[in-house]
Amino acid sequence: MKARVLIRPKEGILDPQGKAVERALPALGFEDVSHVRVGRMIELEAGDPDQIPALCEKLLANPLIEDFEIEHLDGDG
Amino acid sequence: MKFGVIQFPGSCDERDALAAGERAGEARMLWHGDRELGDVDAVVVPGGFSYGDYLRAGAIARFSPVMEAVREFAEAGGPVLGICNGFQVLCEAGLLPGALLGNEGIRFVCRQIELTVESDRSVFTADLEVGKRLSIPVKHGEGRYFAPDDVLDEIEARDQVAFRYAPGHNPNGSVRDIAGVSNEAGNVLGLMPHPEHAVDPLTGSTDGLRLFESVARAAAA
Predict the structure, then answer these.
(1) Catalytic status, residue B91
(2) CB of B212 within 8 A of CB of B21?
(3) Average pLDDT, chain B
């Protein structure tokens, strides 16, 4: 089963990378873009998709500071 | 007192930590693949970029074979000091509360800063005077200490905040100016500033040596 894990800073935690990107946009003529958040995307293939949430919590994300979201890419796996 | 300094692939401050340990006692290097700590009385998890800081700083190092031994050592009351990347490793390993995030100002910071001693509860600060200011360098890109408010209230109530950045010296946006925390038992301490770089008058300050001497004296007592 192929999956994509999206990891982003938890709501309310300052994301300086996102802020830097946001501040760079007007210089390029892109106005009115806000709430930019920078995270990570991890693709993987797992024999047993049931283990994906656990491996996200234990390694891929740090639940104290990050939220994660799992997208299954081939439903019939 | 014999300090064991762990060398991970990507560590860069292990030699200075070794030299600092040798000024306060004896010291030897440990390898990240070691499963046993041997005859050491205290462990230093040094600064650097263990395993390239891949994924998150400290996230991979925490699973190295030696960290299993460090966990057992810490749980048995052995003194463990995490400096910079070592602090990140100990937080990722759950041996210390909280996490370290990218600096508020985005940039890597490298400068001498001042800290205040907030607690003499840990074995590494037992000899220090609460309220005293120490001059110690910082050098990191991901040093913004963070924990949820309820956790912060708890660790403050238990006197686990060992160091704060002095007013005007917070280099990274750390919450409540926290520069270093200990575990509840006081035998595990982590901090972002580098005491091992402040042990010789040649580099401007010997304040960092006090942490190594403190634990050495505690062990001798």
Answers:
(1) no
(2) yes
(3) 97
